[in-house]
Amino acid sequence: MPRLALRVMAAVLGTLTLVTGCSSGGDGGSGKGKRPAGAHVTIRVPADAPTISAAVSLARPGDLVLVSPGVYHESVRIGTPRITLRGASRAGVVIDGRLQQPNGVVVAAPGVAVENLTVENNTQNGVLVTGSARAVAGLPGRSGGYDTGDEPVTFLKSFLVSYVTATRNGLYGIYAFSAQNGVIEHSYTSGGADSGIYVGQCKPCRVVVRDNVAELNAVGYEGTNASGDMYVVGNRLVGNRVGLTTDSDHLEKLLPQRGAVVAGNLIADNQQARTPEQADGGWGIGVGVDGGSGNQFVRNRIAGNADAGFVITATADLPPDGNEITDNAFAANGVDVGWTFPTATKGHGNCLHGNTLRTTAPARLAATASCPVPATSLTPSGTWARPTAPAGIPFTDVAAPGPQSQFPNATTAGATAVPAVPALPDLASIPLPAPSLLAAGARVPTS
Q1: Which of 31, 126, 315, 393 is deepest in the core (most CB within 10 A)?
Q2: Residue 46 preceded by cis peptide, ω within 30
């Protein structure tokens, strides 16, 4: 056997000895070491295991995998429940796919926390959280996302993605698909060739997306077939091609999309040319509703989007019905609110109330579609002058991220206990972002 192979084998055997030798007691035949029942350990990379994947394979529920700064060329799959994977430094711990692997981190077990690290250069996703076996296997769908065919819907329940930087990934930066009861927070995404943050195929979702920054993506945040207790609050969605979309799509199950709350977000200047070109050509739009229904858009600041601040339209045979747009501040958009239905599929019961508006298409929507309106009331359709989208750039060419905030006490805090069901936001307590937050780099307060 070559010397290099012998050294690698010795390192792995040494890792096993070190980790299993740190505690004693029966393990029920798990093969993952002797320790007292209920004991939790910290497995350090590379001190206790040579790779992140090796450390994760040694971890048991309640353990912390703590990763030292370095560039790790691996795809990490977490299949054991209630593990915490944390970087010692958000910018210093980099999982780099080198455009040779589909995903940086795949969470396929409940109660897992992924914290304080960077994932980049993956052909599909930076972080994927999913209960779908086909998605775990890295089988991409058409036009982005995952068309899982006749696979039954299976939810992964309970997850946390926090203080993660996901940049220059070929589909989504952070992707929760067929997953419930989770939180995506304090994270930064850029260079997502489809979306920076994506939540898809959940009902009821019970997912909270809060206090994130998404910039230089094709779409900042996208929710597809994401229904019921789906909250997008206090995020900065600025400088993408499209800021936020919520939609229904036949490529995923659990149609139609219904019942999301989008509140207290800054959605501005989503007209950047140096971004990945989205497949359907969207550009210059703050918020887009495409076949989504029963959603609430409350106290968002929507400004400087060259095409439109807020667009409602239909997708294929799926109408957008009963969306409420209330108490939002619009400014300096091509048109503040534009409702357009170019096909036979129309919307019903969509309405506005209490917004700061300059222009709408059709005109006078604030008066003619003032909330409440009958559920059967036909949503009017209009047209407006729409700018031509500039050519995009490859996701690999998007600008590198700037400094981001760190997970507090990353190297000294214990493992994170992820709740079975997250606390859902109190809508009444979510404020309208101040105009000063339009300044570059300003964060939106979540309380």
Answers
A1: 126
A2: yes
Cα–Cα distances (Å) from 55 to 27, 63, 154, 193, in that order, read 17, 10, 27, 30
Q: Which position has the token pair 């989770």?
A: 182
Instruction: Walk along the chain (447 residues) and give the pLDDT tens digit of each residue.
Output: 433 333 333 334 444 333 333 332 333 333 345 677 778 999 999 999 999 999 999 999 999 999 999 999 999 999 999 999 999 999 999 999 999 999 999 999 999 999 999 999 999 999 999 999 988 887 655 445 567 888 899 999 999 999 999 999 999 999 999 999 999 999 999 999 999 999 999 999 999 999 999 999 999 999 999 999 999 999 999 999 999 999 999 989 999 999 999 999 999 999 999 999 876 789 999 999 999 999 999 999 999 999 999 999 998 899 999 999 999 999 999 999 999 999 999 999 999 999 999 999 999 999 999 999 999 999 999 999 999 999 999 999 999 999 999 999 999 999 999 999 999 999 999 999 998 888 776 666 655
Q: What is the spatial distance between Cα 17 and Cα 22, in angstroms, rounded to a whole number?
A: 9
| Nearest-angstrom CA–CA distance, 206 and 226 | 10
Peptide bond into 425 cis (omega under 30): no
E strand map for 314-350: 324-326, 329-331, 337-339
Output the six-digit token pair for 93: 């711990």
E strands, 79-144, where?
A: 84-87, 93-96, 103-107, 112-120, 125-130
**Residue type at 310?**
F
What is the widest separation between alpha-carbon atoms in the chain? 81
C-alpha distance from residue 274 to each of 173, 243, 376 (Å): 17, 15, 42
As a 3-state breakdown, the chain gives helix, strand, coil percent values, each rounded to 5, of: 10, 35, 55
Nearest CA-CA partner of 256 in 284, 283, 293, 223: 293
